[in-house]
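We examine the record.
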Amino acid sequence: MSTNWTEKQLQAIKARDKTILVSAAAGSGKTATLTERIVSKLTGKTYGDENENKNDENVKLSSIDKMLIVTFTRLSAADLKRKISNAISSELAKDPTNQHLSKQLVLLESANICTIDSFYLDIVRRNFQRLGLPSGFRLADGSFTLVRGAGSHYGQGCQIAVPGVLEGNVNGTSIAHFALIN
């Protein structure tokens, strides 16, 4: 089944060798556009002037485990993963011996498709020592208040930190708005 992509959607799908941000209103086709972009990078699918697609053997294929796909809700992340799985399965049905696509379907289960808050939380978890946080920190909800120990150090003396108090930069990635409990 062919989709009639808008010019902006095609730009997002066809863009290569760069990071993109797809921002649009609810129901505008963001998930379908991102799914098509991801699958085209995994399969080598390219697009002609009339939205017709074909596979190009000269296109370098990507791997889902090398992608970071971030959404705002867990529902969106799960929906995106399901749609990518269905699209890969559909392409694999056309070419059952395609080892690259078979591998992508397996890798999809552990692919980095997540919400923005879980992405940042993972960064904090991997860098807690560098940030001066206790190893057993956990998220708090908005009902907690800040309780600090000596000074502004977020280490041993910190019992609770509410959203917004942890702000910084880890390996060039800005982090902010985490609620932490020691």
